[in-house]
Amino acid sequence: MQYIGEISALAASACWVITALVLASAGRVVGATVVNAVRIFIAICILCIIHWIAYDNLWPEIDNFSLLYLAISGVIGLAIGDQFLYRALIDAGPRLTTLVITSTPALTAIIAFAVLHETLSYVDVLAMLLTMSGIAIAILTRGEKNATKKYPRVKIGILFAFLGALGQAIGLVFAKLGMEESNPDIVHTLYQSGVTPLSATYIRMCFGGVGAIVLLLFYLLFKSSTREKNCRINFQVFFCILAGTIFGPVLGVWLGLISIENMDTGIAATLMSLSPIMILPFAKIIEKEQITTNAVVGAIVSIMGVALLLLN
């Protein structure tokens, strides 16, 4: 199917918009730790069922190298990377954290060039720069009303955000390595043997869950107290977490792997980083945020970059 990689990347970006909105709503009630723990458990259960239905087995049969690459991808990208990002949101705030995350496509392209030997044309580089510039413009203007808000450790928060972006980039590259190992031609269909995006997503999530549990245990071991809210999960909160899990760790990650399977990893990461642009109208309607002229300009610049990527 033509443009399957581009369509999957844009769909993944849209999925993360939904995830951000519903999980933010749930997090305000029960706290981030509870949301993340429940989300990872639900994601693994859903992916296990889908994998069983699609391939008639509970665990994919892959070689050890593919398993190793996908395990590294899950731990670094989904466990360690997300841990840094969540910490950055507390220390530096959402605006600066999201801005730093826009470096993910560039980091992905650099790592993919070194590890996967993927090359980008001058037009691809220009398109990526346009897209990321537009995202940066839009994000910088979204937080103006809260610009005076004080965060505890801004500098260390920015460092954590960068480490989170680096974790995501490394996770994407290792995921592609894992999918390529058993299938050098990188051609998969739903029922072919080998490391399909669904199987890769399932494996990454399982190992990401193991990594997250280890980090949580270390946190509880060395932290005598926590500020997380201690609230019961009601039906509304559970529904939000369930929706966030389906559109995020399940569909979002799955579509993301389909995109990097069918196109250059750096370009795929650029298209998947459009969530801050897509979320603008929802921020206006749901979160009641003011959308400035510069935010609209940033969206237009990003769309021009996406169009250049798609038409090149």
Q: What's a concise summary of this model?
A:
This protein has 312 residues and is mainly alpha-helical. It is built from 13 helices and no strands.
Explained architecture:
The chain is mainly α and 312 residues long. The protein contains 13 helices and no strands. It has helices at residues 4-30, 32-55, 64-91, 94-101, 104-115, 122-142, 154-182, 197-222, 235-262, 265-272, 275-278, 280-285, 293-311.
List keywords for this structure.
mainly alpha, 312 residues, 77% helix, globular
Percent of residues in helical segments? Answer: over 70%
Oligomer state equals single chain
What kind of sheet is the major sheet? none
What's the alpha carbon Rg, rounded to whole Å? 19 Å
How far apart are the termini?
A: 17 Å
Helix and strand pattern: HHHHHHHHHHHHH
**Which whole number gives the mean pLDDT?**
79
Counting helices, strands and paired strands, the structural category is mainly alpha
Number of domains: 1
Report the uncertain regions. Answer: 183-193, 224-229
